[in-house]
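@channel sequence for tomorrow's demo:
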Amino acid sequence: MGVRSRIVNDALKKGEAVSTNVLTWAPIIQNTPRTAEIELEATNIEVATLQVSATELKNPGMAVLASGLLAKAVELDQRLVAWTSTMPNEWIPTFIWDLDTVPKTIRDAGFYGDHCTIYQSMWTADTLNIHCCSRITVALVILACLEHVNDPTTDISQMQTRTTIQSLADAICASVPFYLGDRIHIHRIDDKNIQYPRTRGNPTPDEHYVTAAAYGGMFLMKRFVELLKLAPYLRPGQFPWILGQMGRVKKIYLARPT
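structure tokens (generated this afternoon):
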């Protein structure tokens, strides 16, 4: 299912519908245990289709289409919210609010807001950030639909949707320390001098040093690219911070040692 997931995620990133060839794999999926990953993937296929359909809203006189897409978008968002209650308990992230437990080197390297998040694994972190990006995509469709719908509650709905977008962007930004730790330049992949946020009494697992170094920047960069389209919706200072962290990732992974 890994190949199918990559195809679905790429379609979302590019604003394309999922290939019909992939959709023909449905009978195989039906015979696969309905894990949280499979459920999210299935919903994301619909999100990709919704995103493509919403491109028609750039044209005038689309009130009827907007009304239909709005109903679908709200339904998909409800499903995405409900999905979090079906995922394994070990996937539930831990929020670190006590900044005294976070090394200063991590905070100086890249820390946004008043907390950071740690996860069971890199793969869990990326899955939950993909979930955030899917909800952001749906939220942007909702905002596009509301521009065409004449309803007395439109202003309230727009405000609520913008708040949702901000909170989802914040969630992705809060994951940066888990991915990058306090790295600001190239290190050996097995360097255990790198510091990562942890709860008190729980040292960084050995495998995290390797997986974070190998995949952290790649996973994070994909989500940052998704956040670039949110400039009009983010609070002051957040967009430049994201650009700065993108530059940090490039320095960590692309710079050549002297």
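heads up for whoever presents: The first helix runs from residue 2 to 14.
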